[in-house]
Amino acid sequence: MTPPQTDKIPVTVLTGYLGAGKTTLLNRILSERHGKRYAVIVNEFGEIGIDTELVVNADEEVFEMSNGCVCCTVRGDLVRIIDGLMRRKGKFDAIIVETTGLADPAPVAQTFFIDDQVGARTKLDAIVTVVDAKWLKDRLKDAPEAKNQIAFADVILINKTDLVTPREIDALESRIRGINPYARLHRTERARVDLKEVLDRNAFDLDRILHIEPNFLATDAQEHDRGHGQHGAAGHDHHHAHPRHEDDDLRHDHDEEIQSLSLTIEAPLDPDRFFPWIQDLVAKEGPNILRCKGILSFKDDPQRFVFQGVHMILEGDHQRPWRGDEKRDSRIVFIGRNLPKEAIRAGFASCVASVA
Amino acid sequence: MSKTGNLSAPSLADRVRTVDAGAVVVGAHFLGATPVFVLGEEAVLFLSAGGVRRIAIHSGAILASTADGARLVTGGDDGRLIAVAADGVHRVLARDGAGRWIDQVALGRGGAVAWSAGRVAHVLTAKSGERRFEAPSTVAGLAFAPKGFRLAVAHYNGATLWFPDAPGVPPEKLDWKGSHLAVSFSPDGRFLVTAMQEPTLHGWRLADRQPMRMSGYLTRVRSLSWTADGHFLATSGAERLVLWPFDGKAGPMGRAPRLISWGDTRIAMVACHPCRPVVAVGTVEGAIALVRIDDGAAIEARPAAASPVSALAWDGSGSQLAFGCENGEAGVVTL
């Protein structure tokens, strides 16, 4: 029996390369008056300046599963620590996991999908990555972990903006967008950010996958909604539907290694074609696919189907009926390393349902 | 495949005494004939004829507990190992120097106690004092062998057999890829079984280290219990009671488990009767039943309720069954 979603303790994961400002953000979260009590899982004691009762030291033990899949990993220490913490349920409202600067966020995220007990009692809320505005450019050259942490993030804080020029920040944002156009970006000094931008994001909640749009310029005053620039579907031939290629017109730098791919198909999909395709894709490309997400319109199905994934792990469900005022199409996004874009595009196109 | 248990069988509901433990129940044990419940935080509850006695023994979460009928041993997130006697008197057996969580405990014959914090497993005996063994990764399970003074330590990528009283004998590592959590010897000492991070059991026949894999579960297996005759290993983790055959030379190798349906909800806890071929099962919906292995007949002891069964244990004679639930409901069924 899975307890209702509302009973689950939200877990926020803080990542970021060494010195980017994770601990500053953590201390800010713990010290602000928000009436919430946090259990904190850290990798090193001593840096937390706040007297919090529930601070647990983690070992960052990354365990592979025995199925031989190298990307099916969990954080064994998290399984154990969360089990222990849940014995004190009632003493805290949320959990924050601070990872080391070199940590890969994937095993942390996968723990919530792979371990049934962790998944039944807690829910991954968001991966928040803090980057150092001055040094990120160098880290992207020499530290693959830094790139991973950006690719996985739901929220990115570009911290220490006081140490660089606005032009440098713009360039950095563009670089980050090249890796991950979907995260919310915030420019901060001393990790000063409205905490509601960091906590209670529900970024992994299938029910909250409302739309999939690049989060451009989310930090800028001239933020504009790109989602409405849809091309009309008039005259579209459903027999030969081709996914639209959207990632070319984004204003960002292309990362040479990690990129995103967003595809849209207007014709309804055949679930009997889509599921085998996506399962095969993540089975083969799982190590390279960091995250994926989708909203799908299946033929003769009045419900929206939503899914998300981390490496090879997929979860999906019917979400709600399509509304009359809603554009009914299927949209998927991938963030990954050296993605075989043409093959993915062709594969997705082959999932269109035949016209009866 | 056995037949479905008969839900209209006589009920034991009028033989159940329940109490509100006030916190998640993480262990149920007997000290003599007295049921003792281990709470998720701080305390144990003694349930005697006179009433409920709450004894605070830890300053935080209680992470592990085990008992041998004479004493109860617990480990906590306060880094303490506590022994509780049948009269409720308790004392600190050990403290982790760094205050790390003590999250595995085991009791052996002759008063031997084992526990672990992080990667280090410890054994304490009256005769030879404390000894320690550092595992290659965090210790996730401990079990004493039924014969000889030997401890199995479960960890990542296998389990290690450690002979604490034979410093000259190097610990023997049994390799199998993946994260091994709970660990248990068959009562005859011929097999070692681990529950893994994935919904699978792994095992080794110790005579020749032949590995075996027992799979097909819905969820991680958290509860393992051997039948009194050692012929079966009863497990949680499926919607049916799964009994792996361990009689015969090869144990479950090449054989299917016996499956007994009871209701249609996932089994959370199992506890084999200490003398008879009967298994007590507790479901994720809080129901408890006694299932007879021979014919699959089931007697309901407690109907489904709000909260998963999280602890289940027989007394030494098999006349009382103690249970606890995640929402703090606890009780005892007297047969």
Helicity level of chain A, as a percent range? 25-40%
Gap from first CA to last CA of chain A: 40 Å
Number of domains as seen in the coordinates of chain B: 1
Q: Strand order across the biggest sheet of chain B?
A: 2-3-4-5-6-7-8
What fold name goes in the CATH topology slot of the largest domain in chain A? Rossmann fold
Q: What is the overall shape of chain A? A: globular
Number of helices of chain B: 0
Chain oligomer state: heterodimer
Classified in CATH, the superfamily of the largest domain in chain A is P-loop containing nucleotide triphosphate hydrolases
Distance between the termini of chain B: 28 Å
Largest interface: A-B, 26 and 35 residues
| Uncertain parts of chain B | 1-7
| Low-pLDDT runs of chain A | 1-5, 216-251
Rg of chain B is: 19 Å
Structure description:
The complex is a heterodimer of chains A (356) and B (335). Chain A is of the alpha/beta class. Chain A has two domains: 5-204, Rossmann fold (3-Layer(aba) Sandwich); 241-349, 2-Layer Sandwich (Hypothetical Protein Yjia, Chain: A,domain 2). Chain A has nine helices and 15 strands. Chain A has helices at 22-31, 76-85, 105-114, 116-121, 136-142, 144-152, 166-179, 271-285, 341-349; strands at residues 9-15, 38-42, 55-57, 62-64, 73-75, 94-98, 122-132, 155-159, 184-187, 244-245, 258-265, 289-297, 303-310, 313-321, 330-337. In chain A, the strands form three sheets. Chain A has a seven-stranded parallel sheet, with helices on both faces. Chain A has a six-stranded antiparallel sheet with strand order 10-11-15-12-13-14, with helices on both faces. In chain A, helix 5 (136-142) packs across helix 6. The longest helix of chain A is centred in the C-terminal third of the chain and has 15 residues, at 271-285. Chain A starts with 8 loop residues before the first strand and ends in a 7-residue tail after the last helix. Chain B has a single domain (13-334), classed as Methylamine Dehydrogenase, Chain H (7 Propeller), CATH 2.130.10.10. Chain B is 0% helix and 56% strand. Chain B contains no helices and 29 strands. Chain B has strands at residues 16-20, 25-31, 34-39, 41-48, 51-67, 71-76, 80-85, 90-95, 104-107, 113-117, 120-125, 129-134, 141-144, 151-162, 172-185, 191-196, 200-205, 210-215, 224-226, 232-235, 240-245, 258-261, 267-272, 278-283, 288-292, 298-302, 309-314, 320-325, 329-334. In chain B, strand 4 and strand 5 form a beta hairpin.
